[in-house]
Structures are given as C-alpha cells and as structure tokens.
C-alpha cells in the first residue's frame, strides 16, 4: 500500500512539473523574430535588447523569454523590453445630484437643465498589451426627476373598441400621475391594425372603406399611424385620441411588430429625446413575425428603416414583418424600453417575448384598459430599478468581463455580472470592467467601443490602442551595417531582416539556405551529423533546437552541449548543488563529485556530544561511515545489539573504583581506557548543562547487593570519563529482638481473639436454646393443676327415658 501511494505521489509530481514547464515555454515556442512579435505572445514575455546576449548556437528567438529566465541567462533588467498597458480617463464628469423640494416640485427649471449625467467616467483611452487586461470602475447613479418620453402604441382592431374609450382621457390623467416621478414628461400616441393585403384584411371595396359590420362605423384598415408625436400637452393627447376610430381585420394576430419597428427607427417623426424612452404596446391579441408575410405574397425581409409618409407606414405591403432579433437590435440601438400591456389571455405569450427583449416588462391589461395608468407606472418603476450594461461589437481578439457591485454589498458574477436590481432613485452602483486583447488587429489601428446601460442614452466611449511594437523599434537603424551589408534594420539589439533574407545577421538569402558548402560548417570534426542532430544549419551556422522546458537548452558551435544531461543525485540535476555546463556538473562550494552529491561539510556528521560520528566512524561526503559494524544511525549513535552503556561498563567501573567485581584481577589490562574520578556524594556527580559533552547516569548493584552510582561520558578528545560516588549504598541487616517480640505478641493476640470469638458464639447459642424452650412452654395444652393420668372411680348412668319428673 505504501509503495502504491509513493508511486502515485511521484506520478503527480512529474505531471505537475511537466505542466509547469509547459506553461513557461510559451515565449520560447513562439519563435519570435522581433521584439514586436515577442510582446504579442503573452504578458509575461520580454525581449533582451543587449546586442551581446546571444551565445554560440542560440537563435534570434532566444531573446524572447520570461523576464526571470532572461535575467538568469545574463540579460540586465535595464536591457529588457517589456512594455505595459495603461488606462487613461479622458472625461470624468461627476454624476448629477438632482433634488426636489419637500412639496415634490423641482427647485430649478429642469427644461433648462439639459446636462444630466448618470454614468461616470464618460471617455477613456486604453493601451492594450496582448494578454494583459486593463481594468477600470464604471459608476452609475439613478438621477432624480429624470425626463421621460412615453409613446402609447395601441391596437385599434375591433376587439379594442371599449379600450379606446378609456384611453381617450389618458393624456391628462397620466400627466398628473407622472408628476410624482418627473417634472419633464412628454407623451405621444400611435395606432396599428394590420398589413393592407389579403389574407390579413378583406380587400373588397366595401370592406376597404368599412371593415366592420354594417351597423358599425369603422375607419379604413391601415398598418401603422403616428397620431401624435411626443408632446407635453396632455389635453392635445386627449383631443387627438378622441378623434380615433376602431378598424378591423380578418385574422387574430396583429401587425404590431411593423408598428414597433417604425416607432423605434423614426426618431424624428416620433420626437424622441436623449432621455428615458418608454414604448407602451397595448393589445388583446398575438403578433405576426418574420416569415408570416409570405401568406400575403411579401417575401422581402424588413429593412429596419423609417418609411413614414404623412405619419403613415407606407411599405407594409412591400416588406415582411420584422423578426424578434431585429426588433431587439433596433430597440436597443435606440434605447427604448418596452412595456407590453396585454390581456390575461395573452400573458404567457408576451412573457416569453419579454424574456427575449432586454429592458422590457409585461403588465396585465383589464378587459377595457381601465387600469392602464397603474400598469404603466408599475412597469416603469420595475424597468428603472434595474441596470444592465451592454457593449458594442468588440474588435477581433478583444474580450471584456464585468463584475457588478450592487446595493447592500451584493456582487453580481456569472450571468448577473453586468446587472444590478432594486435600484432606487439616488442609489449608486458600480461595475468593475476588464478589457483584454489576445492579439493585435491586422491593421494595428485604434478601435472605439461603447458601453451603456440598457434603456439609457448615456454611454461610455472607450478608445483602444494596441501595443504592437516595442519602443526600441522607433530608434531602429534601417539598412544597418550590423545586418550584413544593410540587408536589414538593426533594432532592439537584433537585426530585423528584409524580405528574402534570414540569419542572425541577415547574412543569407532564402534561396541559398541549404547548400553542401554551408552544411559542412555545421558538422563537428567532419562528421555526418549536422549540428549534432540537435539544431538546424542556417547560413552555415548552427541554430540549436529549443526544448519545451525553457530551462533546458542546447548550446555550442555544433549544438554539442546542453545543460540537462549531467549526472543526477536524488533525482536532481547535479544533486541540486551545482549547474550543468556542456554535460559536466560545475559544483557549488563545499560540494564535489560527478553529480555534486559529495558534501565537504562535516556538520551533518556532528553528534550531540560534539564528536564526529560519536567517535565511532568517519565522515565521508557528509555521511557517517561507522567503523564498528554493530553501530548505525546518522552519527553512529545506535547499537541495537549492545546491552547498554551502564551494563557494558559496570565491571570496569567496579574494579577501577572499588577493586571488586569480575574484572578485578585484569582491571588494568581490560579497563585502562576509563578515566575514573571519584566524588563523595551523588550530588557531586555532573549535572546536565555543566559539561560540554553528553553523559549518562548509571545505577548498578554488586554481588553484595550494594548499589553504586556513576556517570559515563566521552569527552571531545575521545577520552572516556567516569564519575563514581565513592560511598556504596548497602542494605542494613535485620533487628532480631523486635521481630521475635512481634511474633510472640502476634500469637498471644491471635489466641485471645480466638477465645473471645468462641465465648461469643457460645453465649449466642445458649440464648437461642432458652428462647426456644420458653416458646414451647407457652404452647402447652394441659391444665397445669390436674394430674393428666388420674381416672375417677365413679361411673354415672342416666336413664334415657327419664324426663326429669
């Protein structure tokens, strides 16, 4: 199990190492031939401009690498070209703080106050380096008393007859209600029915005049009519709407999409301002969309242009209905927020449509439109309480990301990264925006994009400048002598060759790259291998191949050297204590050996007693080699078969200190290695911290059962030193008299105790017997005053017939 875990650990380590090396090789693998090409590879890539940076066998692209790698290769920081992107704010006007007085009236005349700013900043300039995102913060604050344009677009098919009556007074009533929201409100009105071709309407002459039944007076059918452009005169709205008449058509879906398209694109005819634009779409039916026009023989797609003449849509018979996507685009381009006021029956249909159109809302219209004012106000509050950012089309290779910082610390990410909800008047939210370029555009020209909140006219204009060349290229020397007779431009420390020329110095033509004469210069010792099979012969000079790992490289005139094929130790190149140069380890100080795996430092062999290998071995390459095979451990401190220090030296200590023990006859011969020092008491033995070497406290017993105490230690000069307590601790003999007296006293006491116990048991037995006798006596049946064996001599006979007379 342990081996399996070890194998998995090693495999994961190898995979991680390979992944890390693969990530770091992007700059090298790009094979950049100029500084401009290099900085477009990735943000981490830099270009060394030092003319003397390249070594023999290095290609020009070796100048492009990660910054740390270039510095390790010997390029000075000041000689590395690594331009960075930047963000510059060009227009940063603060957002508008508009207030009302306590009565709800504006303090100033809002019509003269035309500059309303809800988004900040307004203009930026970004310098983009490939792979390096530029970030900035965009702030949005919903202004109070913001102007509103509302256009009421109504279905005037016959089913909406009762609704028209309630809309006739909508102008003044809605004006009054909107005073609580804004003091600058304008309202307009338009109507629609259907395309004026079969099968949508009846084309008989009578039905073209009056499409309704004979007893109903209806106006001629039409596609879309702009009845009233936006105005602040509510009474005018009432007057013109009161003059409208119901019309009719044949099918149930209506041509409302034609009308919405014209309202969106005919800004001048409608009178839209750069303020909040609301379009109220009121109907009790479904809708036709792109493709339905084929039923009437109309096949041309809607062109999305304005076709109003005398406020009437004149091309309904020529262009098909617009598609939903086309409507979404035009509504978004013109910052129009749509409110669908529809009956309960068609709620599900328009709810699905609302999900496809950003910044739109759906309200349930009563059967006669009596609740239209409340519906409009509720829908407006819902739409204005959300902020959704959108951007124009991005240039190729450019990406953008958002992070919303909404109310109450809510952070929007994922699908809601550009949205904030429940925004009240005066609330301020912000968005962190990052723009990143993956490559330079083909024309390398600046591009402009715009970011805006949906439904608002304000926008942020961002100019994108792309860093496609290094600054050092501006000072390049065309037709330079450094580039083989002027065959290139010397810039950023290297030659940028003219077309048709190659080589580090542009010394070769592309037509003569591979010739036998030039290849001969790339063969070592007239061998057969070109550049040792580790490079390409370019213009008679070896350009060594690159490895995926940027730390590994081939070098040398014939690419015969590398820095990764040296001896290894512990799976590390040169043991991790040197560098590999041309397949030979150059060891760091205090290391030697072919793999730099032999340390000259003996500190790793120093034992706790400050002795090399505890005096039991030698230090070789930083590792103890124990001379006595029974010892082992990093400093020869372990002896599994040894009895221990104290028992090992017991006999020698006993004979040297007390002239006793098994070795007393051969003491000098066998125990002369000990230096014995006697001390009077145990307190005089060496204590921890008092010596410069370690020692062991011992307690042993001699043949007479006497204890003796000593310490054993090895001095720094390998002298074995023993401190012995001079006085033995022997057990004292027994005292006979107290023992005998104690035994006799014990016997006497035990005898008395036994007698007392016997006496107690007899008393208990007698008492039990007496009690038993008394009980039996109480239970006797005879009379105690008469002899029980006495019989009387008198016999009495009674005559049975005697009646006592």
From TrEMBL:
Subcellular locations according to the entry: Cell membrane; Cell projection, Invadopodium membrane; Cell projection, Lamellipodium; Cell projection, Ruffle membrane
Region called Disordered, residue ranges: 86-109
Transmembrane feature ranges: 736-758
Intrachain disulfide bonds: 27-470, 35-45, 38-75, 48-64, 212-218, 266-306, 406-420, 440-698, 468-472, 483-495, 492-531, 497-506, 508-522, 537-542, 539-574, 544-559, 561-566, 580-585, 582-613, 587-596, 598-605, 619-624, 621-667, 626-636, 639-642, 646-655, 652-730, 671-706
MF GO annotations: C-X3-C chemokine binding; collagen binding involved in cell-matrix adhesion; fibronectin binding; integrin binding; laminin binding; metal ion binding; protein kinase binding
GO BP, sorted A to Z: cell adhesion mediated by integrin; cell migration; cell-cell adhesion; integrin-mediated signaling pathway; muscle organ development
Sequence ranges assigned to domain Integrin beta subunit VWA in this UniProt record: 34-470
Keyword Metal-binding among record annotations: yes
Protein's UniProt name: Integrin beta
Pfam assignment, any one: Integrin_B_tail
Domain Integrin beta subunit cytoplasmic: 759-805
Assigned protein family: Belongs to the integrin beta chain family.
Signal peptide, first to last residue: 1-20
Biased composition (Basic and acidic residues): 98-109
Species name: Esox lucius
Bilayer topology: Single-pass type I membrane protein
Keyword tags: Calcium, Cell adhesion, Cell junction, Cell membrane, Cell projection, Disulfide bond, EGF-like domain, Glycoprotein, Integrin, Magnesium, Membrane, Metal-binding, Myogenesis, Phosphoprotein, Receptor, Repeat, Signal, Transmembrane, Transmembrane helix
PANTHER family to which the protein is assigned, alphabetical: INTEGRIN BETA, INTEGRIN BETA SUBUNIT
All residue ranges annotated as the PSI domain in the record: 26-76
Any single Gene Ontology cellular-component annotation: synapse
Domain Integrin beta subunit tail: 646-735
Chief location: membrane
